[in-house]
Amino acid sequence: MKHSYSQIRAMLAITKASFRALLRSPSAIVFSVLFPLIFILVFGFIGGGGRMTFKVGFHPDSDTTNLLFKVLHDSVGLVVVNKPLAEMESELERGRITAILKVAPYDSGNVKYEIDMKTSGAVNAQNVSILRSIISTVILRFNEIVYPAQPSIAVLKDDKIEGRKYRTIDFILPGQLGFSLLSAGVFGVAFIFFNLRTSLVLKRFFSTPIRKAYILIGEALSRVLFQMLTAVVILALGYFAFNFTLVNGWVTFFEMLILSFLGLVVFMGFGFIVSGLAKNEAAIPPFSNLITLPQFLLAGTFFPVENFPKWLQPLCKILPLTHLNQAMRDVAFEGAHLTDVMPQIGVLLLWGGLAYLIAIRVFKWE
């Protein structure tokens, strides 16, 4: 009995062969697995306690008319966050700002002002200590210049709330996972399809009954399977070795995998563009680096976007990796769900749509 040709079986055969090739590829292992794991290990060991930050907010009830407030507001080393009180308290609970300061009049002998410093258990105790020293130094210098004859014109009072501890790994791991997906999607796809084209493998596929769409899907599936396994390894290492925060447990874990899948599919569109534009194999790294390097540096992989100059931040915030990183951090640490990060997902989908529209125009089979 004659059996009809199965497009699905042919596609799965391509997926299986391509997946085996990925497992045997040193470059795929290095860039997708070892490279991000090295950074996670380094930052996990040296920075498990928290991020070094001196962002502060001023309570809206602060007396903004006095000179001490203005001196503190403009002090070197303090980055003032101007947000509503509820937002500042929420960020304080998560350790994203070091303290909320309230400067108020205080009438007790020579003391004219009280500075209430509200901190959180989520903030590194060393950071709080350094901030306290900075404020004490500001008071001392202000007193020496303005009121040299008085012992002290201000008192510093501590107020601490509980909060979830925000470790370095909670910031670094989503960034490294995102960059692993970006590298795999761009470099992996670009090299694979360029080599398939130049080695005439794609041309040989055309002599079989398999359709072009199934060839693409089969090759793409192998990359997706490989990278999802990589994502599982990265998340598991971060969670079990460095206490990476997965607020809602398994739910958060699976939502992180869904975001990883979405990011990979979007980034693969850029890989198809590179494979279509490259005239030879030597042209692939420069094209790929034009896409990946700016995102590696500017998309919040190692440092918050807010740390960059204000004129550069708008560029940072339009990059697709920025939105993937932010969505992953919100889901992992803040307990957000996929429905809560739809704005970031929407931007990713817009980038993906644009990338695949261009890829269709420039993609070559031969």
Description:
Helix 3 links the parallel strand 1 (about 55-60) and strand 2 (about 80). Strands 2-1-3-4-5 form a five-stranded mixed beta sheet. It contains 13 helices and five strands. It is α/β, with parallel strands linked by helices and about 375 residues long.
How do the strands of the widest beta sheet line up side by side?
2-1-3-4-5
Structural class: alpha/beta
Assembly category:
single chain
Number of helices: 13
Contiguous uncertain segments of 5+ residues: 46-53
Domain module count: 2
- Kindly report how far apart the N and C termini lie: 36 Å
Average per-residue pLDDT, rounded, comes to 78
What is the helix content?
55-70%
Profile the largest sheet.
5 strands, mixed
Which percent band covers the strand fraction? 5-15%
User: In one word, what is the shape?
Assistant: elongated
Secondary-structure element series? HHEHEHEEHEHHHHHHHH
Question: What is the gyration radius calculated from CA atoms?
Answer: 26 Å
Q: What's the count of strands?
A: 5
Keywords:
366 residues; 2 domains; alpha/beta; single chain; elongated
Brief sketch in words of this structure:
With 366 residues, this protein is of the alpha/beta class.
